[in-house]
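ok, trying the design again with the full structure, not the truncated one.
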């Protein structure tokens, strides 16, 4: 059965939701669990719901939504990691059985090196102490700084969202691949096979992602690569079923054991989806 390692819910204008904006017409509406069920079909056994707003209110709402929703196996929320109160907030969130980790929205911050800031140490300590993980929402330019953190903190479980949003629309494959290779050499670093089609230009064919997927499979393999829909953002490029089908068609993922890992087991293990509060 399928575990979706990365998807979102939001209510426009509520819970500090300011994105997506109206010009993104395909996703500028409310998305809730019933919509996910309709998009994914009956094979979806559960999902990891990831924050979409840099807001405590958004995280609190997602946790309330998860309380009575069996489809949500885990929540990755937002915390102001530089706040003096971050350790306290992380401790409180960790008491919620479905809270699994945090995601600072690094792609939107003005300082590309923010994640390597020494002031994050108390928050990182709290994440590790409570068995929580870090989702890294990054581009290639952030990867050297993420490497600094990962090298400094081998005790912190890290997953790179969307393959670090590679430059599919551009011509910088080698830079991305080399930076990802250095991170993949660290055993605590995982990666999500998600969010790639929305990094391509509209005039590019679906096959434009092939060298990037092949490299992620080679770097992270069946032990540290997990599939995510990035639904409903994926609707900007295709739909849930088409993205899932495209990934399943890669030769490595036709192997049943490899597919079982990428489409279920890695997410379960990384996010400790069968565990209670830490």
């Amino acid at each position: 059965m399928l575990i979706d390692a990365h998807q979102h819910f939001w209510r426009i204008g509520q819970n500090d939701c300011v994105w997506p904006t109206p010009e993104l017409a395909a996703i500028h509406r409310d998305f809730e669990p019933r919509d996910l069920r309709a998009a994914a079909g009956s094979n979806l056994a559960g999902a990891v719901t990831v924050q979409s707003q840099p807001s405590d209110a958004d995280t609190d709402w997602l946790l309330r939504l998860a309380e009575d929703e069996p489809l949500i196996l885990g929540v990755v929320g937002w915390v102001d990691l530089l706040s003096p109160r971050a350790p306290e907030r992380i401790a409180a969130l960790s008491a919620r059985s479905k809270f699994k980790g945090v995601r600072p929205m690094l792609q939107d911050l003005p300082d590309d090196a923010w994640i390597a800031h020494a002031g994050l140490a108390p928050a990182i300590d709290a994440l590790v102490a409570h068995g929580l993980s870090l989702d890294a929402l990054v581009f290639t330019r952030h990867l050297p700084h993420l490497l600094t953190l990962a090298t400094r903190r081998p005790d912190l479980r890290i997953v790179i969202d969307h393959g670090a949003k590679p430059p599919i629309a551009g011509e910088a494959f080698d830079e991305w691949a080399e930076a990802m290779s250095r991170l993949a050499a660290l055993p605590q670093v995982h990666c999500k096979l998600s969010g790639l089609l929305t990094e391509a230009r509209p005039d590019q064919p679906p096959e434009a992602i092939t060298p990037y997927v092949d490299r992620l499979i080679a770097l992270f393999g069946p032990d540290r690569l997990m599939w995510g829909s990035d639904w409903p953002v994926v609707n900007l490029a295709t739909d849930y079923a088409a993205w899932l089908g495209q990934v399943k068609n890669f030769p490595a993922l036709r192997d049943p054991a490899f597919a079982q890992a990428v489409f279920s087991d890695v997410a379960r293990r990384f996010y400790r989806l069968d565990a209670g509060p830490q």
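Keeping the full-length input from now on. The longest helix spans residues 256-271.
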